[in-house]
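Handout, section B. The chain below has 174 residues.
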Amino acid sequence: MKYCAFLRGVNVKGTNMKMAEVCQVFKDAGMENVISILASGNIVFSSDKKTDELKVILEKAMSEHFNYEAFLFIKNEKETELFWTENPFEKKDDFHTYAFVGNENIENTLMKEFENSIKTENEKAEIVSNQFYWQVPKGNTLDSTFGKILGKKSLKDQFTSRNINTFEKILKKF
């Protein structure tokens, strides 16, 4: 089966890694047809193992190789495609749209955080098919109150986010 692993915290805050090296760690852990998409930690690969088993194997391999606490979220091809096809927001040149990949029910935690945050003008969030989407004016991603929760230590093992355009690039590699 084909999967995409979404790594959290790659190439930010001093955790720098080359995607070729990450791909090699995946190969050494038994994954096949391994390729990376962008430098933000999106790894497409094949395996006969189940998602839960892959998460344990790959987090351990990444943590040991790069000497950091690795968090990654694995979705199969169909699940990954849903992030692109279920996007509720219209594409706008002056906005970023993000989809959040994470643990079960993380969308509800994120929505609660969003509802309790101070919004910038036209900032929106929606849950579609148990997936959390956020649209924010360009230039406001890290300045918005909600944007600041993305780095909360208490949530670091719960989710990662990607610009919606990243999913289109990933799907082309499947």
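Note. DSSP finds six helices and eight strands in the chain. Compare this with the example in section A.
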